[in-house]
Task: inverse folding
């Protein structure tokens, strides 16, 4: 039992250490190199794309164990009945999840005349925001008219 | 307070300069980092590019037009919601009196 417990604890510690290392790598995203792409040159023009990046991650590890009595020796109805055999068990498990999102924000173009930052517009996102706002306005107006 | 600073960080970071011909570009980004005991979150966005040419430095901002439009519409919706809510409350109060 004690040996099994040591094994489970060691495995859980190893998993936790590994998960913590993975999470630590997540913070590399906070560097500008993850936001600005490598420059691409075509002719006399060089282009660098700039994106917004968001990353989230989490993990959890758990373990447990227990001991139990076996089958009662006949149904005597007494609380202090005798039991046949006993059992014990240990177990552990873990899980994690994460998500990452990236959205282009602008294109930086470097020409002999100078540097220009051209924004990247996402009409779908703007349309969703517009219709949500219009929906809210319509809902509030109709509610106000009803009194 | 310092513990909170370790957990939540909001910083502007300058990256390594990229040289294109006689122009040196230094990218700048702003990152929000949230460190949790068993996880974390990072939000990183470009803010500006420092352009160095002929010994002169210029800061060219990176404007997120989509985000500005989204926030403007969200703000408009919120203001409209607040105003109509206020008007309907006033109307109901006047009706009761």
Result:
């Amino acid at each position: 039992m004690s040996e099994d417990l040591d094994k489970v604890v060691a495995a859980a510690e190893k998993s936790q250490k590994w998960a913590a290392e993975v999470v630590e790598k997540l913070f590399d995203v906070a560097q500008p190199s993850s936001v600005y792409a490598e420059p691409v040159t075509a002719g006399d023009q060089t282009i660098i794309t700039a994106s917004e990046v968001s990353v989230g991650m989490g993990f959890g590890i758990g373990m447990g164990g227990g001991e139990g009595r076996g089958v009662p020796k006949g149904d005597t109805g007494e609380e202090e009945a005798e039991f046949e055999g006993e059992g014990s068990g240990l177990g552990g498990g873990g899980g994690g999840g994460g998500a990452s999102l990236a959205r282009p924000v602008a294109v930086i173009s470097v020409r002999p005349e100078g540097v220009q930052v051209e924004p990247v517009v996402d009409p779908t996102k703007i349309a969703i925001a517009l219709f949500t706002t219009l929906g809210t306005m319509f809902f509030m107006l109709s509610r106000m008219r009803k009194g | 307070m310092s513990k909170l600073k370790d957990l939540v960080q909001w910083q502007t970071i300058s990256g390594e300069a990229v040289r294109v011909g006689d122009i040196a570009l230094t990218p700048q980004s702003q990152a929000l980092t949230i460190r949790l005991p068993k996880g974390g979150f990072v939000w990183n966005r470009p803010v500006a590019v420092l352009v160095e040419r002929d010994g002169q430095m210029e800061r060219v901002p990176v404007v997120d037009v989509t985000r500005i439009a989204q926030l403007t519409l969200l703000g408009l919706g919120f203001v409209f919601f607040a105003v109509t809510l206020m008007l309907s409350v006033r109307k109901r109060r006047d009706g009761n009196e």
In short: The mean pLDDT of chain A is 85. Chain A touches chain B through 54 residues (CB under 8 Å). Helices of chain A lie at 2-26, 123-146.
